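Could you show me just one protein sequence together with its fold in token form as a worked example?
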Amino acid sequence: STRRASPSAKQVSVGRLIRALGSKRAIFLGEHHPELRDHLLQAALLQSLLSTRKPLAVGLEAVQRQFQPVLNDYVAKRIDEEQLFTATDWERRWYWSFEAYAPIFRMCREYGVELLALDVDSEDKAKVEL
């Protein structure tokens, strides 16, 4: 599908974008969950930001809070990607493709970037959903 930009949107160079983002305390990168190219763009932006800002951490809506120790183990290279997939119960708790998120996981692991589990645990959601 083709998405149209807002009439007020302006195209900027990647370098200019990275320089602008490099001075911010927090950056929120969204994506269309099923779009691999969106995830690849996020990974590329994060890779570029590594050269301009430290420390850097990546928060993940896709991973529930109870799995924070799993993310820590993955970044610390105590578990591999398959174990990350299994230990986060990915298929049951987040139905979007793990492979779409893998480039960000891999980049964070390679550079020691902290991954933060941001999603509410399913068990807690069940207590408040009608």
Q: What stands out?
A: Strands lie at 57-64, 114-119. The mean pLDDT is 87.
